[in-house]
Design a protein that fits this description.
Strand content: 35-45%
Number of strands: 5
CATH class of one domain: Alpha Beta
Structural class: alpha+beta
Largest sheet: 5 strands, mixed
Order of helices and strands: HEHEEEEH
Helix content: 25-40%
Number of helices: 3
Distance between the termini: 57 Å
Radius of gyration: 18 Å
CATH topology of one domain: Nuclear Transport Factor 2, Chain: A
Strand order of the largest sheet: 1-5-4-3-2
Oligomer: single chain
Shape: globular
C-alpha cells in the first residue's frame, strides 16, 4: 500500500473516531507535538487541545451528525470535506440559542492533515461559521429583489 492510501486510511479512521466520540483511541494516530493551525491561542497544541475543543463543540452542538463527503490525498497531506447537522445549544460567542436549541443543517467543515511516518503532525481546519450564525438566527440577511425589467 502506498503512503497516500495509508494516510487516507489513517485520516478516515481518525475522522470516524471524532464522529463516534472515541477520544481515548485517538492518541496513537498523532505524533508528539503535532501542530494545529485552527485552534484558539488559549487551548494547548496537540491532541490534548483538540480533545478539549471537541468536547466544547459537543456541548454547543447536541446530537451532532457528521458525514464525510470527500477525502483526497496528495503527497503527505490528506483533505477531508464533511458536513454536519446538529441542535445548536449555544456556547459560541455572539450566537445565542433559545431553550431547547436551534436546528442547524449541512454545515461545511474542511480539514487538511499532514502526516509523517504514519502519524499526524499538522492540521488545518475550517467550519462554516457564517452558515452556523445564519441558521442559528444570529445574522439576518436582507431580502434581495430582482432588478425591474428583467
Amino acid at each position: 500500500m502506498g503512503d497516500e492510501q495509508r494516510n487516507k486510511d489513517i485520516v478516515r479512521t481518525v475522522e470516524q473516531l471524532w464522529i463516534d466520540g472515541k477520544l481515548d483511541k485517538l492518541d496513537q494516530y498523532f505524533a508528539p507535538n503535532d501542530q494545529s493551525h485552527d485552534r484558539p491561542p488559549f487551548l494547548p497544541q496537540g491532541i490534548e487541545g483538540a480533545k478539549i475543543a471537541h468536547q466544547g463543540s459537543m456541548k454547543s452542538f447536541k446530537d451532532r451528525q457528521l458525514e464525510m463527503k470527500d477525502l483526497f490525498a496528495e503527497g503527505d497531506k490528506v483533505f477531508v470535506r464533511s458536513t454536519f447537522s446538529a441542535q445548536y445549544m449555544g456556547g459560541v460567542p455572539g450566537i445565542a440559542a433559545p431553550e431547547g436549541g436551534t436546528p442547524i443543517k449541512d454545515i461545511e467543515s474542511w480539514s487538511v492533515y499532514r502526516l509523517k511516518d504514519g502519524k499526524i503532525v499538522e492540521h488545518w481546519g475550517l467550519n462554516d461559521g457564517f452558515a452556523i450564525a445564519m441558521q442559528a438566527g444570529a445574522l439576518e440577511m436582507p431580502r434581495m429583489e430582482a432588478p425591474a425589467g428583467r
